[in-house]
Each structure stands twice: as structure tokens, then as C-alpha cells.
Amino acid sequence: MPRRPLRLRTAEADAEVRAGLDRIRAEYSVPGPFPPAVLAEAAESAAPSNGRADLRDVPFFTLDPPGSLDLDQAMHLQRRGSGHRVRYAIADVAGFVRPGGALDAEARARGVTLYLPDATAPLHPRRLSEGTASLLPGRERPAVAWTIDIDDAGRITDVDVRRALVRSHDRLDYATARHDGGDPRIALLGEIGERLIAAEAARGGVSLPLPEQEVVHANGGWALKLRGDLATEAWNAQISLLTGRAAARLMLDGGVGLLRTMPPAPTEAVGRLRLAARALGVAWPGGASYGDIVRALDPALPRHAAFLHDAAGLMRGAGYTAFDGAPPGQAVHAAVAAPYAHVTAPIRRLADRYASEVCLALAAGRPVPGWAREALPELPEVMQRALRRGADIDHACVDLVEALLLRDHVGDVFDAVVVDVNGDRTGGRVQLVAPPVFGRCEGADLPLGEQVRVRLEEADPARRHVRFSRAA
């Protein structure tokens, strides 16, 4: 097994990766430059400032991955009695986009911002997404301002949403934000985040702590790494989930909206997961939900990692549900364990602009604008198509780099963990200890959750495919 992490270096390797990424762009029809009419409209657009609440003196801050410029959200947090008040300012993209215009049509065609390791294909032109609409520090910006009060159990007690003018004071990032006394704002975010995580568990919600494969380009080469959620990311996600739950409740009470939904896991699927837990030696006490089990696991342990990969199979069927009148029969997102909506990322996700507009109208007691209401029935399909393309591109990029990393190591033996087994026991799926590659593995009776030795049989960059067999 290689002693050092595999990394693609040299100009030739760099050219191969970029050529492979170009093929992925062509295969999945990744949008290129914006048409001139779209760029012209983005350059001329300006959100009106009249009629907005003035929140420019509220010390909002943003928290995002390092280097991000498309800043959708800014927050201000404070204690309020035994509970908390969360102010969440969301970029008011609708203020810049003329319904039915060139910019609107292009955003509907794209659906979401697509992220590749070497470039992004943004939902909106950068002049807007990284400029006039982005909540950059020190800039006066139009926003959709949510004020959400929660009690000492993390339950929502009051909600307000309105258009406002805001000015973010600081841009923080996950890599440098400190909660160990270094920044009281992050300490308060942790206090609220942990309270919301506990409330999620009490509702029966669950977030899988699985690290994600990520293609990185640094120090002159390309490599793979596993990216696990930092505590600050998990807390930040809870603020977004809180706002999404508040938005869903507002829309359900108002009888119109767009929800993000996911059905409960089928009983038979939970039963299969119980069998996997037994095989892996993961304790599942009577009466405990799979969410209770997941929260007690450590993804760094091979048996726990295998169980978590199996548990991911229960989180399927997520989609968007539009309604106008009676609430939908399935209005809950099973992982959130509550009704939930996407409203916090309008710069990067099309649906959020429409859902936010519905919430603003309902909160103000006025009719939902026709351009937003009339589009709701079409958005579930538009968004599913866009999100599916984004997920396929992510997988293709990782598969490409996996195959290139291992191309010259066919026949080598690696340490790996068995994370899945075929139903007929003729093979399964393994994760190498290093580099963090996942691949199909041939071999009878692979021991689920155990560390094994595997031989690389195939690594084909053209097909973006790797294949292993169990080594003696």
C-alpha cells in the first residue's frame, strides 16, 4: 500500500484533470457564459430601497466556506429571557430580477449554481451573485429579514419576516471561526445550535454525520479528501433549518407555498437496517429510533461508518411539493421531522426566491404576487432536474479523480473497510483507508464493517470507473 497520500501532480496530470472536467461539463450540459441580454439586465438591475425596514445598525455577520463571495445569509443572535432571538437576513434576489425578463428565464433554465473543482456555473451573473445582491461586509444591501424567537427548548414562539436594508459587519468562515472564547458570536451560535439539535432529536429528526468526498486542488496537485462537518457548519445549518421550518409553517397556515418534503422511511427498510446493526454489532435498544442510534455513532470507526452508509439509504425520496389551497397530504420532511421549506439560499437556488416571496406576502396579509404564485406548480420538476444534475456532476468529478489517482496502481493492494454488501453476497462496496476512494469490490462473503485487504483490478479515467477484488 502506498505510504503517502496519492496526489496528482505535474502539468500533464493537471491537464488530464481539466480535460476530464471539460468532458463532464459537456456530458451534463453545464451552462457556460451568460447571454449578453442576461448580463445587460443584471448590470442594470437595482432593488428598490423604499418601504424597507432599516436594519443597517444591526451587527449582522456571515459565516460561509473560506473564499465564498456569493453570500446568501447573514445573522444576528441574542439571548432573550431563557430563549433566544435569531435575526436572519437573506439576500433579496427577487428585488433584482424582473419577472419574465431575460435574467428570470436564464435562472429558471439553470435552477441551481453548479460547483466543479475548477470553476462554478452560477445561477445568476457574478455581478449580481457576488456583487450587488451578495451580503458582503460593509455594503448596504436589500434583504428578506426573518426574526424568529425560540424558547429554552428550541421551539419557535414568534416569527416575523419583512423586506429590509441591512449591512453585514463581518465575514467569517468555517475554517477560522472560533467558539472557544475567541468569538462570542460563535459561542452564542453554538449555544443556539446545540439547543436546536436537541430539539431536532426530540422531534425525531436526524442528520447523518457522514463525511463527504471532495476534490481539492492545492500545493500544485489534485487530491481527494474527506470533508466532515465542523461544529460551526452544523450550528449554521440549524439556523437555516429553523428558518425553513418557520417558512413552511407560514405557508401551510396561509394555504399556498412550496415545501421541501421527504417521506418517512418504509418499515421494511428500517427492518433491514436493524439486521445490518445486528451484523455490525451496533446496539439498537428496543424503542430507539434509527435517529437515536445514528447520533450515538462515530463515523471514524469502521463498523459505525458501514452502518451510517446503510442508514443513508433511508433518506430517499426528497422533493418539492407545491400547493395552493388545501395542504398536501405529505407535508413533512422526515429528516427534519417537521414541515420545511427552502428560503435561505436564493442566490444559489431558484426555488428560494419564489418561496420567500410567498412568505413575505402572507406575513404582510397581502396577495401573493402572480409571478410567484403561477410558477409554483412548475418548480418541483425544475428543481428536481437541477438538483439531480448537480449531484451527478459531483459524483462524476469524484469518480474522475479517483480513477486518475489509482490509474498507475492496478495490481496494488490497499487497506479498506467494507461499507456495503450485495444481497447475493457476491461482492459489495469498500472505502480505502487512503486515499479516501470508494469502489465496487468483488469477492464472496465480504465482512460488512470489517477492515480487509483489496487489490485494485481496474482504474479507467475515460469511464470514471474503479474496481477492486478481495486480496488473499
Quick rundown:
With 472 residues, the chain is α+β, with helices and mostly antiparallel strands. The chain has helices at residues 10-27, 36-44, 102-110, 126-132, 184-203, 231-254, 267-280, 290-295, 302-311, 350-364, 370-375, 379-406; strands at residues 53-64, 73-80, 83-91, 114-116, 119-121, 140-150, 156-173, 212-218, 221-227, 256-261, 319-324, 413-421, 427-432, 438-442, 451-460, 465-470.
Please supply descriptive tags for the structure shown above.
16 strands; globular; disordered N terminus; 5-stranded mixed sheet; 12 helices; 472 residues
Runs with pLDDT <50, length 5+? 1-5
Please tell me what the overall shape is.
Answer: globular
Most strands sheet: 5 strands, mixed
For the secondary structure, the number of strands is 16
Rounded average pLDDT: 92
Order of helices and strands: HHEEEHEEHEEHEEHEHHHEHHHEEEEE
Helix count, DSSP H or I runs of 4 or more residues: 12
In spatial order, strands of the major sheet run: 1-7-6-3-2
From the N-terminal CA to the C-terminal CA, the straight-line distance is: 14 Å
Structural class: alpha+beta
**Fraction of residues in H or I helices:** 25-40%
Supply Rg.
23 Å
Q: What proportion strand?
A: 25-35%
Structure description:
The protein has a 5-stranded mixed beta sheet. The protein has a 5-stranded mixed beta barrel with strand order 12-13-14-16-15. A two-stranded antiparallel ribbon has the order 4-5. It is 35% helix and 27% strand. α1 runs antiparallel to α12 and α7 runs antiparallel to α9 (302-311). Residues 1-5 have low confidence and may be disordered. It has helices at residues 10-27, 36-44, 102-110, 126-132, 184-203, 231-254, 267-280, 290-295, 302-311, 350-364, 370-375, 379-406, and strands at 53-64, 73-80, 83-91, 114-116, 119-121, 140-150, 156-173, 212-218, 221-227, 256-261, 319-324, 413-421, 427-432, 438-442, 451-460, 465-470. It has 12 helices and 16 strands. The radius of gyration is 23 Å and the shape is globular. By secondary structure, it is α+β, with helices and mostly antiparallel strands.
